[in-house]
């Protein structure tokens, strides 16, 4: 059982033939479920269409920070409307990207805050993209109530490594690349990490440290396909079935069997996205 907790079957660069081929590859793989993540109004609509077409596909809807200079309040209203569609399980991906968006920081922050508020209004899980803005991302999430008592009371608690039930604010740090120290703070707040292909890279010291230091009960597996292909597929377009390489590396780092790592990370994702009965 494998669960790709963040991927882009809806990628706008795919032709319909390419999208169909990717879907066939997923169906032929060991992947049971994917979350097809929106990064614009149009890609969110495509994610909803994909979810309607495939039983194993679920959607998230949101506007990526790279759209901060071109989005409108009407787009936020459209995301709210799309969030009510069948099989939409989260708001995302939203957040801050100061690597590519140095000239749109204030606009990104405004867009981020608006979508956190939307997720809080709808009481939906949140999928976070953050790059070169780790501390500010956490500050804004806290300020906007993403870890509020209201959210933690709304969502069922989750088990920690010892089986104790602890808060779950349903906030996913997608492709987490921050420090272990910050990761510990996020765990206390009730966040969950989603880790993908970069874990397998030779320069993945920080990500390995996070995986070593954070219980697997707070971690999901992802691909972010078609981006960030893992070793030994690096340099090629990423694909959801390649998630096996990520989970095998997780198992190696944690010193457990591959099947156990697959089981734990998949169950974490099913709980996070309210798919426990699937």
TrEMBL record:
Secreted in keyword set: no
Record has Isomerase as a keyword: no
GO molecular function: hydrolase activity, acting on ester bonds; metal ion binding
InterPro entries for this protein: DNase_TatD-rel_CS, Metal_Hydrolase, TatD-like
Binding-site positions, a divalent metal cation 1: 6, 8, 93, 224
Gene Ontology annotations for the cellular component aspect, listed alphabetically: cytosol
Annotated residues for binding of a divalent metal cation 2: 129, 174
A Pfam family this chain is assigned to: TatD_DNase
Alphabetic keyword roster: Hydrolase, Metal-binding
Protein name as annotated: Hydrolase TatD
Organism of this sequence: Mogibacterium pumilum
């Amino acid at each position: 059982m494998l669960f790709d907790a963040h991927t882009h079957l809806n990628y706008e660069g795919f032709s319909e033939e390419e999208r169909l081929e990717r879907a066939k590859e997923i169906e032929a793989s060991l992947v049971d479920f994917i979350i097809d993540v929106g990064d614009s109004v149009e890609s969110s609509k495509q994610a909803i269409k994909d979810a309607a077409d495939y039983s194993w596909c679920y959607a998230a809807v949101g506007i990526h920070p790279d759209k901060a200079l071109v989005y409108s309040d009407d787009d936020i209203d459209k995301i709210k409307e799309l969030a009510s569609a069948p099989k939409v399980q989260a708001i995302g991906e939203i957040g801050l990207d100061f690597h590519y968006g140095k000239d749109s920081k204030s606009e990104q922050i405004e867009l981020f805050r608006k979508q956190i508020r939307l997720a809080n209004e709808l009481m939906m899980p949140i999928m976070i993209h953050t790059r070169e803005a780790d501390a500010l991302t956490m500050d804004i999430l806290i300020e906007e109530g993403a870890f509020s008592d209201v959210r933690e009371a709304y969502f069922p608690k989750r088990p920690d490594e010892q089986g104790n039930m602890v808060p779950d604010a349903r906030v996913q740090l997608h492709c987490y690349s921050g420090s272990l120290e910050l990761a510990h703070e996020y765990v206390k707040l009730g966040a969950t990490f989603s880790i993908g292909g970069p874990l397998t890279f030779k320069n993945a010291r920080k990500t390995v440290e996070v995986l070593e230091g954070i219980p697997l009960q707070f971690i999901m597996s992802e691909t972010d396909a078609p981006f960030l292909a893992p070793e030994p597929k690096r340099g090629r377009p990423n694909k959801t079935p390649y998630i096996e390489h990520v989970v095998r590396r997780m198992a190696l780092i944690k010193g457990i069997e591959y099947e156990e790592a697959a089981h734990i990370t998949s169950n974490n994702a099913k709980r996070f996205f309210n798919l426990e009965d699937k």
